[in-house]
Amino acid sequence: MKTTHIGxxxxxxxxxxxxxxxxxxxxxxxxxxxxxxxxxAWFDANKDVFVRDFQTPMKQLGRDVFxxxxxxxxxxxxxxxxxxxxxxxxxxxxxxxxxxxxxxTIERPAGEWTSTPVFWFELAPENWSYGLGxxxxxxxxMSKLRARIDNNTKAFEKLIAPLDGQDEFVLDGPxxxxxxxxxxxxxxxWYNKKTLSLIHNQQIGDALFSPELVDRIVKGYAFxxxxxxxxxxxxxxPS
Length: 239
Description:
Number of domains: 1
């Protein structure tokens, strides 16, 4: 993954790539074609299309969002990563060496990013999504979340209260088969997650093709930032 660190000056990448102006119908067409022709010969013949219509706008979007978040929410040591199109050769078991989807993340540096909270945006042929969450939180992390909820239920209810007045994000994630006894009805869904995310899913449409997508994502991340600040410190709680 390409990684960008927060700094006081614009990066060389920022000065060398135009601002995000929206994805295009060509982006979606490329993703579908790659899904149906996921092999080296086809990809090599269409690599210029990939760079122009998929990789470049994804990098532009990720960089523009990152710069805004870094400016508005400094002091969190955020970095910015853009996924590579090439799948890990050790995990290619179906003969498909490329991803038909791409994403970027904004996160704090960590040895294992899958177990720490990250902001993300992902584009697939069928839809796009963005939000905040864990790819696969550790059981110990979720245990500490439950302990915090137990220790100060009212504070957690106050933290999640703004979610009731919006329709951009929904709580998502697998739940325990055997329900745990939460301290209140408002915390029950959170208390029973094995891992969690706050996610917005949307079908391919006009929002994706507009430069205003940057503003929407930054606004969404700003709304979720208090939850990020809460989650990122969970692992420092005593076991």
